[in-house]
Amino acid sequence: MPLLQVEGFGKSFTIAHLSQTIRAVEGIDFMVEKGAFLGITGKSGSGKSTILKSIYRTYLPDEGRIWFDSEQFGRIDLLQADEQQMVYLRKHEIGYVSQFLSVMPRTTTLQLVEQSVLEMGYSQRDANKEAIHVLTHFELDERLWHTYPNTFSGGEKLRLNIAIASVKKPRLLLLDEPTASLDGKSKLKVRELIEKLKLDGTTLIGVFHDIEFMDGLCDQVYDMKQKAYEQTERVR
């Protein structure tokens, strides 16, 4: 059984003051096996991010099914899941990473990661231990742990974003254009982080503008224009 299966997915947006409905995406079908990495390609405005936000339920899709093989709930349609179920899944099973870092005022890097662990019901002691482990794992300079991340570089913010999401050990991690504003060196670091996550058994779905970045990294690539899989080599 795949970890995630999308069937006949579609999403529209209504512009109330213009009394207009815009069709963002329709007719999407794909599946992702456990431990695999699916890349989604397509031009800007093709609906790539809309798909990820709908899986995470930031958006509520209009049609189709998004089946997720949950440890807690079994095979569940994310379109039909209630709010309590989605809160649980976001805390324990599904993570989301974008190119933007949303931080709480006067909260240090270490505290942000600790908070992510505390949300799962762990003690402060365990949260501190896990936070230190994941920040070390993703090679974020220890000198930054007790500083506020609003002044971090793009690469440092991204590593922190991934650390916050991955410390919960999600079964599925959604990557929404995380490398869009990064330089070449930072992109290489992101690639290394993704490879580490795969080795840890995390299933990933990613949207990237940089096609070369995805080469050899994804197990499958879904083309929004063709609405079909492209051939790609597995990571060795």
Automatic annotation (TrEMBL):
<dbReference type="InterPro" id="IPR015854">
    <property type="entry name" value="ABC_transpr_LolD-like"/>
</dbReference>
<keyword id="KW-0547">Nucleotide-binding</keyword>
<dbReference type="InterPro" id="IPR027417">
    <property type="entry name" value="P-loop_NTPase"/>
</dbReference>
<keyword id="KW-0067">ATP-binding</keyword>
<protein>
    <submittedName>
        <fullName>Alpha-D-ribose 1-methylphosphonate 5-triphosphate synthase subunit PhnL</fullName>
        <ecNumber>2.7.8.37</ecNumber>
    </submittedName>
</protein>
<dbReference type="InterPro" id="IPR003439">
    <property type="entry name" value="ABC_transporter-like_ATP-bd"/>
</dbReference>
<feature type="domain" description="ABC transporter">
    <location>
        <begin position="4"/>
        <end position="235"/>
    </location>
</feature>
<dbReference type="GO" id="GO:0061693">
    <property type="term" value="F:alpha-D-ribose 1-methylphosphonate 5-triphosphate synthase activity"/>
</dbReference>
<dbReference type="InterPro" id="IPR003593">
    <property type="entry name" value="AAA+_ATPase"/>
</dbReference>
<dbReference type="Pfam" id="PF00005">
    <property type="entry name" value="ABC_tran"/>
</dbReference>
<keyword id="KW-0808">Transferase</keyword>
